[in-house]
Amino acid sequence: MTASPPKAPVVAEAHEVDTFQHPSKPHIGSLQEYETLYQESIQEPEKFWGRQARELLTWQRDFQTVKSGSLENGDCAWFLEGQLNASYNCVDRHAFKDPNRVAIIYEADEPNDGRNLTYGELLREVCKTAYVLKQMGVKKGDAVAIYLPMIPEALIAFLAITRIGAVHSVVFAGFSSDSLRDRVIDAECKVVITTDEGKRGGKLIGTKKIVDDALKQCPDVRHVLVYKRTGAEVPFTKGRDLWWHEEVEKWPSYIAPEPMNSEDPLFLLYTSGSTGKPKGVMHTTGGYLVGAAATGKYVFDIHEGDRYFCGGDVGWITGHTYVVYAPLLLGVATVVFEGTPAYPNFSRYWDIIEKHKVTQFYVAPTALRLLKRAGDHYVKHEMKHLRVLGSVGEPIAAEVWKWYFETVGKEEAQVVDTYWQTETGSNVITPLAGVTPTKPGSASLPFFGIEPAIIDPVSGDEIAGNDVEGVLAFKQAWPSMARTVWGSHKRYLDTYLNVYKGYYFTGDGAGRDHEGFYWIRGRVDDVVNVSGHRLSTAEIEAALIEHPAVAESAVVGVHDELTGQAVNAFVAIKDGNEVNDALRKELILQVRKSIGPFAAPKAVFIVPDLPKTRSGKIMRRILRKILAGEEDQLGDITTLSDPSVVDKIIAVAHEAK
Ligand code: WT7
Fold this sequence. Notes:
657 residues, 8-stranded mixed sheet, 18 helices, 22% strand, disordered N terminus, binds 5'-O-[(S)-butoxy(hydroxy)phosphoryl]adenosine
């Protein structure tokens, strides 16, 4: 690291004097320095990224070729001859230097139930767990599924898997057993890691039971490693299920990390697209880690001694990159928060920030909207160590941005609205804290190595200059971009690289204003964003069809004050079924069961028929307009096979209001 801020005790004891001072300056000195470095990253990416990769990571074998392949051919690869290990970079090198430094600040669901883990302890735990996995027969390149709540063992599991060269495939512990089953099968996982139960917001979650249900249809899973979180009685399948605490105590606390090639897979993470089943997005070791470390350092301005708190779940990409990899690669403390922002009350985040002297906080606007609405009397905290406030996952409205800056950050901390995706691996359009001037609602300027293009979706041509609107694409490969979709490279090419040849297509609409700042408008495909969770309308429709009463369904995302977007479903049912609230409830349950509770429709409209063109295509645009109360702006409906359905749908929608 370039700057060396004064070392503050990681967790100050009550009697200690708090000697904290903000680091005197960010890693990047000025907007001009950003611009110079940015130009270098675009004109001479080999030089820029070669330097970053050597500075930020420890390589077991150096690389010679920084970059190869092209977006046209979909064969981008980085740091080719290099070898490294993710867990070594996240743990060993810090543990050797300073074993007593805090790595994980575990804030349990119940305040005061938590504990800290130092880098020395983390190394020992990771090694023991790595041994356990080896004993279970996990080999280099095998995928291991993680279905865990937000506890330190989730991070230990990530790192133990990478230590032996295996590939983690984390499934958010809010997904249903059906979703878990599909992901375990697709990645051919032989081992699943879970807990007896989870605890969140004072409620218990039956993780082991969900795993058991999922595995009924996964005959290839040999072992389930179960961490005892609550001590509940859970059924155990003899031979298959093993207790974490009983297994780890059998093994020594050091095992050498497996040297991995830079392009070896690091993890799979399933994400929804506009069509088909969820895609297993694949990230590789060298490039992904460089992106995580570089954005941690420059976007969040992480310095030694910082305590970084990302409120995202490890089940999503935000948790992968910013709960686990970025802070640990940079050797700082990461807060692992098991609970919710509303438990035991709406002060929980601020209590955590105050208690642990958090320096960077990162969360989705949906949580901020909830907390803003709860009232400022919950935010009485000084939080004087806060330097950076991050926002992620959905557009942040200007008034929420201002509240974050003024009420949470006391106009001292910098707000960074970070735009990125599961597929980009790390932040791609974002301010650098303390460097980039911000405009509430704009993700501002591209990160190093990102060359954005605004494309006219009709002509497919790039639109040059400022003050333009279109869809967002990137013109150059960057180290942390996804390399493929597991088992379906063609799908990867078709979704991201063949839409506009020579570009990576994000799926988002965006504007570039008169000063070259980017404004993300939201998805242009059938992906809805509920509380920062990415859902596919096609997937929810497929879930609804599984119900025997459903003939057809159409799902749309509608604006929602709290969750950003909400799922609304229109369902045409088969003759002979009664339309009542019980059926509506069953349909919602159906989605909870096939995908997970977070995908459940907020409203279900049972209609006689859906608006379809003569060729059978469902006109979701009309449904969106009706929900928005814009019945007078439906446009031309004469192309519908039966235009009279429109009035019937309007009647149903009105009745529901
Ligand atoms: C989609 C990606 C990346 C972590 C969380 C979501 C939307 C993301 C922003 C932002 C406006 C944003 C986009 C993107 N999105 N960040 N700062 N402003 N929209 O990851 O599930 O892969 O979803 O989230 O629509 O395409 P994801």
